[in-house]
Amino acid sequence: IDQLPATPDTLWLRLLGRDSVQQQAIAELLARPRSDPYRERVLQLLINWRVTMELRELQLNTDEESGLMVALSQAYYEWETLKIQEGIQQGIQQGIQQGIQQGKLEGELRTVLRLLDRRFGPLSEECRTRLQALSLQQVEDLADRLLDFATAADLTAWVQTLDNRLSQVSDRLQQQWPELSPDLHRQAHQLAPQQLTALLETLPQLANPDDLAAWLQTQQPAES
Hints:
Elements: H1 11-14, H2 19-31, H3 37-55, H4 63-120, H5 125-132, H6 136-145, H7 152-176, H8 182-188, H9 193-202, H10 209-218
Helix pairs in contact: 2-4, 3-4, 4-6, 7-9
């Protein structure tokens, strides 16, 4: 391996070489485009190698061994930096999406509350507080049904139906998966009444929390 020419075709073999040959191969790997899928995979292997060497308390008795650890440390730094950047980008995207959803929820809720006030008179503080706790799916469902309400009693009935379904779903989830994650509980409690009814009917067919997560994903509001 140490006699191989320094070309892209021999890079992966030279990473298995020794001393300066291996160090040069690591440097060439780090110079490859970040979009290269092999680069990410081999970097991960190099990181595992570096950690293994540290755990075994490798004694660096030669310049060659010291050079290898320097090269591996550079590979580790490159990999760690990439992961941090990916995490930041993902966090930014999630924050933007959450901001969009929150803005949409607040806008639709203001409209619904205004329409309810005009149709049935000022809502009680208790009713207003309950409606302000609705999720986006629930507000959209309420907006769709608002024109069908003849009296304020219809609104009360809708809220009671929602709360009953939420209680039933909460009990069923606790029975079926006692250790279910809070995030899945939260997602389930954001569903509209009809979605909650569908979930109660679907739960016996779901084998595990992963199935539940996949089903809940299909119920998310469409992005606009």
